[in-house]
Amino acid sequence: MKRILVTGALGQIGSELVPALRQTYGADAVIASDLRPATEGTEAGRFITLDCTDGAALGRIVREGRVDIIYHLAALLSATAEKAPQKAYAVNLGSLVNVLEVARESGCAVFTPSSIGAFGPTTPGDPAPQDTIQRPTTMYGVTKVAGELLCDYYFRRFGVDARGVRYPGLISYVSPPGGGTTDYAVDIFYGALEHNAYTCFLAADTQLDMMYMPDAIRAAMELMEADPASLKHRNAFNIAAMQLTPARLADIIARHLPGFTIDYDVDPARQAIAESWPRRLDDSAARQEWGWRPEYDAETMTVDMLEHLSARLGRPLPAAHR
Ligand code: NAD
Ligand code: AKB
Fold first, then answer.
1. Domain 4-168+213-238 belongs in CATH node 3.40.50.720
2. What is the pLDDT of residues 56-103, one digit of tens each?
3. 140, 167, 198, 296: which is the annotated catalytic residue?
4. Does 170-210+241-279+297-313 carry CATH code 3.90.25?
5. Tally of CA atoms within 13 A in the half-sphere of 71 that contains its CB
6. Which residue's alpha carbon is nearest to atom 28 within ligand 1?
7. Across the strands, what pairs with 30?
């Protein structure tokens, strides 16, 4: 049996990764952990409160749980990190060093997500190649580039089986996003279902890569199961599924919710971050090395999001949707 620890498990990704891992590897195989305590809404199963910047506590849990794989999700996202850069540095890099050290000592494999935020304004942006210039202008990006390099280093120097992807903005309905620049692409669905209107904090034509959460979860699990002999890159694989602007996403939603309107109240801080990121990623290395393929495009994601979120919010969709 593979024994798995998930850090940052109560966040947007963890709240869907943990159930998927439990379904695949067994409920007892997965320890979920987070800085925050579990609440009533948290998925049932083993849960531990853990601050990953505490390396000793992390080490104890890994040793006592005889953990084989750590999915390390604890981090501060781009917009939050820009408001508290020193804390973001401490959490994002401090916790990753702790995870890699304990993995080195205990022989665990590690999955760590990087992001489109690991790129910057001097990266060729349409598409951003797998191996290219990485000079991000945010603290989030600084921690992501350093994290990618640390994972490569721990593999080369110590043989730690560290793998990871560069996620685009993730769209999901189970848990709200945790303070990112791409959050509008989730918030817009709440606005659409609750008010048939949404005020967007990014400008209408700001194009970024996005992905639906089921694809993101599958990517993490498939990469960790991939034959190591086929991985040339191992870490920081670009993965992509759809390219959206707020205006394009609003048009698709309006086809399902007649009368839906969007307007704009641009937040200069998040707009500047978005403009420093690529418009599209080239994910051909992931496709070639471990067979990455997205299943959802913008249309199928929108239909699924509206159906699931309307059920969760108790707001039936108009007949025109079906
Ligand atoms: P999130 O903000 O939703 O969740 C992060 C979780 O980490 C939270 O539950 C938080 O309580 C926890 N946490 C924060 N500090 C901690 C600490 N010191 N110790 C333990 N837990 C702590 O983030 P997410 O969207 O689930 O992202 C997970 C990872 O994926 C991050 O590395 C993020 O950069 C990356 N990523 C996410 C996206 C996205 O769109 N969601 C895109 C690209 C990359
Ligand atoms: C963010 O906007 O910070 C995240 C990401 C793309 O890394 N969603």
1. yes
2. 999 999 999 999 999 999 999 999 999 999 999 999 999 999 999 999
3. 140
4. yes
5. 33
6. 73
7. 4
